[in-house]
Amino acid sequence: MKTIGIIGGGQLGRMLAMAAARLSLKVVILEPDANCPAAQVANRVIVAPYDDEAALDALAEACDVVTYEFENVPLIAATRLARRLPVYPPPKALEVSQDRLVEKRFLNGCGLDTARYHAIDSLEALQAGLEDFGGHGILKTRRFGYDGKGQLVLKPEGLDIEAAFAELGGVPLILESFVPFIREISIIAARSIDGAISAFDPAENIHRDGILSTSRVPANVDVAIMQAARSAAASILTALDYVGVIGVEFFVLASGKLAVNEIAPRVHNSGHWTEAACLVSQFEQHMRAVAGLPLGQTRRHSDCLMHNLIGDDIDRVPDWLATPDALLHLYGKDEARPGRKMGHVTVLSPR
Ligand code: ATP
Ligand code: MG
Ligand code: MG
Predict the structure, then answer these.
(1) Which atom of ligand 1 is nearest to the CA of 205?
(2) Cα–Cα nearest to 182, from 259, 250, 253, 248
């Protein structure tokens, strides 16, 4: 029986551990919070900071392979582990996705379009960049942003460049052109150790306050766009010599072209629908890939709409429990703070 190490014990680690159990894989989680969501389902939790050397060595000792549930795993931890056992996805995927500037250069190097961008290390660079974009752009921290945190939309009206710079300042920034997208889609794809690639159908995503609110499948885009998303994901997976599941977020432009927004080298919130609408979920797919098992089938048996349950949305659980064709999944978190992901529910439209 193989043992899989997972760095990070949030809801994604928890759902990975649940999928692992069904495949008779054991799971050891490395996570500083002993009461993390994954602790309720993992075989063992090593409670320590992600870069604690003794804890990393204990993880390596206990496992056959290590994976992770978030992209901000310290690179130093991943490379320390990679000296002793396979780390999937490869640390290079962390390096690329941890820094929005490195990520965009990588994507462009794969022949994929992104928003236009400027590296911003000074107020002067921000002024010049905004001039290039006609005063309209999104200023983002290069590192550690998630759920729309660490970004500001800048518009020509009432623009105070100094205040914007100060608000996000102190870290390297990136200024992106504002993409006039008509919709947002994402694709969850996987690559196995032997190089096989497979993808689920793209989802159409709606964000509220910078946080994913719903994912609908099928996305309301034509087949050529779906195919372009699949082929973009395949280029990325191949370029990274990737093993595991990846999430790729796209903007769909009025021209029918795609621009990649960002990649997540892990299972992705916009792929939670797969547990309800496919026989093999993204979580099982990831576990299969990193454990060296064959990838599972990605065919969708139902159309569906996934709702994230954020903060107070948890109060509607009784309604969801009574909703036909709805699969509810809660993360075992006690305190419902605003913006906190508490669970999700996928409503199927049987066809
Ligand atoms: P996640 O939680 O998905 O990791 P994040 O904090 O990394 O989010 P992004 O995905 O970069 O943030 O941006 C969040 C949302 O903001 C996007 O899904 C999109 O709706 C909007 N957005 C981001 N960048 C741009 C852009 N250049 N042009 C237009 N809209 C954008
Ligand atoms: Mg992100
Ligand atoms: Mg995003």
Answers:
(1) 18
(2) 253
Which amino acid is present at 102? V
* CATH number of domain containing 16: 3.40.50.20
Pocket test for ligand 1, best of 261, 266, 341 (most atoms within 8 A of CB): 261
177 labeled part of a ligand binding site = yes
Q: What ipTM is given for this predicted complex?
A: 0.98
| Residue 235 sits in the same domain as residue 266 | yes
Sequence-distant (6+) residues with CB within 8 A of 124 are none
Enclosing domain of residue 169: 116-177
Mean pLDDT for the stretch of residues 193-200:
98
- Ligand that lies nearest to the alpha carbon of residue 118, given by its number in the listed order: 1
Burial class (CB in 10 A: 0-12, 13-18, 19+), 169: middle
Residue of minimum CA distance from atom 4 in ligand 1: 146
Q: Kindly state the tokens that stand for 69.
A: 């549930």
Give the separation between CA 249 and CA 212, rounded to whole angstroms: 11
- pTM for the model stands at 0.97
